[in-house]
Amino acid sequence: MTTNIQVECAPDLSEENSVMNFGGVRLLSGNPLAGATWLVVGSAPVEALRSVLRFLLRKISRSLPAHNCWLLIGSSTWQPKSRLVIHHQLWGALNARGLEIPGDNRMERAEESPEGKLRFFGAVQISEFSIDAVAKALLEELCAYIAVLPDDFSPRGILEIGWSGRFFEDLPLLEGVSEVDGLLLKRIGEFDDQEWGLIAVARPPLVNTLLS
Question: Most buried pick, 53, 86, 95, 209, via CB within 10 A?
Fold first, then answer.
């Protein structure tokens, strides 16, 4: 069965559009950011995300061969600095919850608050073989993005920025990814929405590459 993926795009997200409005805010010293959405209507959320992920990962592999895809996941809340939290850190805690992301190329960092609590940020390189796990992660984890980064750029610097999982709070992350000629993708769809999929935000030439 062929899944119908609906595509919309906007060449400048600082202007009024149907993709995402930044309310007149211009990022990157006035350079515009473009956006595009790929949505499936009427399918179960995880199935919709799998379909869109499969389509986009194949497109990225063909059209952006010098880029790699990374799943970014962060802690949604500060955690007590307990022995168990320190032992599990990010990936161990996700595994304990049944969310195992395949991939040998992974990294993480811990951040400690002035009150002595911890939160974690991690990145794991993904491919078409990890679609099922990535779709589940995007569905279950608030602080999750996909970053498409040049293959000579390590996401470790991105981990230092951190993120909340809310686009409008994560402009430093978006700028950091865009400045190195990368894309940032985020899940679209909440609760009983009929549309589920992904939004990509980047400089216009990169977004246009995915649309061509």
Answer: 53
What is the distance in angstroms between the CA of the first residue and the CA of the last residue of the chain? 24
One-letter amino acid for residue 90 of the chain: L
Structure tokens at 91: 């990936």
Q: Which residues contact 210 (CB under 8 A, 6 or more apart)?
A: 36, 56, 59, 60, 63, 64, 183, 200
β partners of residue 185: 146, 200
Domain boundaries in the chain? 6-211
pLDDT tens per residue across all 212 residues of the chain: 457 899 999 998 888 888 887 765 656 556 788 999 999 998 899 999 999 999 999 999 999 999 999 999 999 899 999 999 999 999 999 999 889 988 879 999 999 999 999 999 999 999 988 999 999 999 999 899 999 999 999 999 999 999 999 888 898 899 899 989 999 999 998 877 889 999 999 999 999 999 98
Under 8 Å CB-to-CB from 92, ≥6 apart: which residues?
A: none
What is this structure's pTM?
0.92
Question: Are 108 and 90 a contacting pair, CB within 8 Å?
Answer: yes
Angle between helices 131-140 and 45-63 (to 10 degrees): 120
Q: Is 148 helix (H, G, I), strand (E, B) or coil?
A: strand
In this structure, what token pair is assigned to residue 173? 């992350």
Report the alpha-carbon distance of residue 164 to residue 76 in Å, rounded: 7
117 and 78 Cβ atoms separated by less than 8 Å:
yes
